[in-house]
């Protein structure tokens, strides 16, 4: 059994990759391809960490599985290739006032507040991650429920048109690498990494 920080709904974390000027996208897509970052995103958002306090033994006999939830805006949802959506082994929640669900494989809510409130008290949801896009990140980072911000910092300029919101250093501070590893529940490469001609680094900010 894994022991985690006390971190469960309604609190949530943001996870994103951003370049030198905090750009996160062009034409509703990532302008870079970093395989290790893609794998990292999948590991982090899938990993279920269960504390003694959060364990619900009734789940073991009911056949229900515990999973994380990923909340995203409509454009982020549509940017995921159809063959990869919904994202596997996570509850996919899409924020939209017009999108209609094509099946029961994902949930739609009209606002972030509504989505988060709907997940509170569900024993099958371990953690909530906000995964984009820009407007959803901005709303989420300003929420008192945002506890952690996981950023893959890409040390290159891609002239993006969509940006990650400014991180208020009066509210958030850079966490240590050990704190990041503890939060993620897996080993995380430390310091700057290189893939092709791109340098990047896995970082985490925490609420003070």
Automatic annotation (TrEMBL):
Keywords: NADP, One-carbon metabolism, Oxidoreductase. GO terms for biological process: dihydrofolate metabolic process; folic acid metabolic process; one-carbon metabolic process; tetrahydrofolate biosynthetic process. Residues 11-207 form the DHFR domain. Pathway: Cofactor biosynthesis; tetrahydrofolate biosynthesis; 5,6,7,8-tetrahydrofolate from 7,8-dihydrofolate: step 1/1. GO terms for cellular component: mitochondrion. GO terms for molecular function: dihydrofolate reductase activity; NADP binding. InterPro entries: DHFR, DHFR-like_dom_sf, DHFR_CS, DHFR_dom. It is an enzyme of class 1 (oxidoreductase). Its EC number is 1.5.1.3. Belongs to the dihydrofolate reductase family. This is Dihydrofolate reductase.
